[in-house]
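Input chain follows. Return structure tokens only.
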Amino acid sequence: MTSHYAVLGSPIAHSKSPLIHNAAFGFLGADSDYQAIELEEGVAGFIAGLSSDWLGLSLTMPLKREALAFGDRVDYLAIEAQAANTLIRTNTGWDAYNTDIFGIGQALEGSDFDSVSVLGTGATARSAIIAMQQLEKKVTIWGRNEIAGIRMAKEFECAWVSLDKAVRADLTISTLPGGGLDQYLESLSPQGMLLDVAYDPWPSGAAKLWSVNHEVISGIEMLIWQAIGQQRLFAGNQLEEPLENEHKLVEAVREALSMAK
């Protein structure tokens, strides 16, 4: 019997998650499929209508808080991030996880940096802060919503800084939507590398500016690795437990993305 999975969110038409996960299932030889479903709200109602062969869901905006509240058991990272991007069916209900934190950490694997600025105040920004604090990096925060940003800085015991200062960090992680930095770019002088979580359209205005003199990491890297984290969970592994031949799985996913360009 085919097992079913999907990503829920809105807007969802642009999502690359079906391409990534179906490539992964194909590599693994799993009798599973994965689709994108437009859903603005109502996670509980949607799941109530699913048959028993639906085994897992990915959640993107604006459903990550709903997914967190829906989980019968919630992973501690999802609790800390106040957002769940993964729901796994169990014998007793649904477990909620956050693989964004894992994805951000893996996207930066091998990069050399000490200071980090996180741009944004939403769920992905929280995940980025947690990922960097796990690595014991010095984190500062900037966001367009200053009140929310200062509150977040206090919660995570980080400094709230101006945007000019933020982009002087060894690493800037922008969690802003695509084009979210465009109005500020003319006045910025970046001094480190950039991880831009927004990957469509690519390259972003920020990526173009940073790439003149600095390394730029596309948000596709985070997307790939958070999906690999979900594949671990779909397979019944713990989040920190790699799949067999995972490096080849990642290669297969990258090839699928490359062929789809």
